[in-house]
Amino acid sequence: MDSHQTPIVVEAEHLRKSFGDNHVLKDINLRLAKGENLAILGQSGTGKSVLIKCMVGLLFPDAGRLLVLGKDVADLDDRGLDEMRMKVGFLFQSGALYDSMTVRENLEFPIRRQMRSKSSAEISALVEESLENVGLSEAIDVMPVELSGGMRKRLGLARTLILKPEIMLYDEPTTGLDPITSRGISSLILEVQEKYNTTSIIVTHDLECTRIVANRVVMLEKGICVAEGTYEDLRQSNDPWVRSFFE
Questions:
Q1: Please, are residues 54 and 21 in contact by the beta-carbon 8 Å criterion?
Q2: Where is the ABC transporter domain (predicted)?
Q3: Span 91-139, pLDDT tens digits
Q4: For the whole model, what pTM was predicted?
Q5: d(CA 22, CA 110)
Q6: Strand 216-221 and strand 224-229: pairing?
């Protein structure tokens, strides 16, 4: 993808974030082009999740600039953050579901909160479309506790997609899932990109997920971007550390 001709929707420049003496992000520079799936690959504790939490204003960097859809996240007030979060979907590791609500109620919740003008019929149509898109139509009236791990992930994705975000952030989307279910979730990320024309960042240490979904890969090590390229570029890298990750 030629990012010179395609709008840049996320841009980080010299981003730093520490928690006390733990310097998690030391100097992060990256750009995300519209329509692209970017995988951020690295071992646990390398700052991957901290980086995407900064992108939605759940954390704020100590230094550097972070632009999302053209706006500096650090400059946004509460209203600005709310408006930005409507355009940026965040799929947490846990799926972040409400166990006291049915599948239908879990999906209605963000619409009722963010789209108050919608009628009950419009809300029902959005819920049904969203579940159909993730292959969960038959689960509309069950409780999340009755769903498998893979189904909970799908439901979390449906709930995020219901607001039609421009950017999707996936935090370890395949963690804790068996290989077949993981491949299903990876394929679903691709389908979402094609159907909704979303731009996505996928934070992962799952090589198979990375291979399936990523147009481009950034590798993080000790809070720094150490390598960038396609999956094949990095797999055949001259750098022994980068190549070792793919063996």
A1: no
A2: 10-247
A3: 876 666 788 889 998 888 877 776 767 788 888 888 898 888 888 888 8
A4: 0.86
A5: 35
A6: antiparallel
- Distance of alpha carbon 49 from alpha carbon 91, whole angstroms: 11
Q: How many CB atoms lie within 10 A of CB 14?
A: 14
Sign of CA dihedral 8, 78, 53, 98: negative
Domain ranges for the chain, please list them: 8-98+167-244
Which amino acid type is present at position 236?
Q
CATH code of 8-98+167-244, in short, is 3.40.50.300
* Per-residue confidence (pLDDT) for residue 244, from 0 to 100: 86
For residues 155 and 186, the answer to whether their CB atoms sit within 8 Å is no
Mention every residue, 6+ apart, whose C-beta is less than 8 A from residue 202. 37, 38, 39, 40, 170, 173, 189, 209, 210, 213, 214
